[in-house]
Description:
Elements: H1 2-8, E1 30-33, H2 40-50, E2 56-60, E3 71-74, E4 80-85
Parallel strand pairs: 1-2
Antiparallel strand pairs: 2-4, 3-4
Amino acid sequence: MAKFHAWRKxxxxxxxxxxxxxxxxxxxxxxxxxxxxxxxxxxEEKFLEETKxxxxxxxxxxxxxxxxxxxxxxxxxxxxxxxxxxxxxVRSD
Length: 93
């Protein structure tokens, strides 16, 4: 459905349906995830290791464990998105 909506709006986005952790992220400008909280450490590690400077990670509802988001978007009292940009990463260890 997402591919249809992107096509309909004329987006140049390339949407992939692959194993999230097996797929390479080196060419990604934006990575979106809505994953179970125990997986967020693995998401953070992959984001730091595989993305290029300027890449963005948008995490729905769950923070990365040690990185500070550059922005938080609040949708309602239960849902939000945390936005991380790898050139502005600050660990909060």
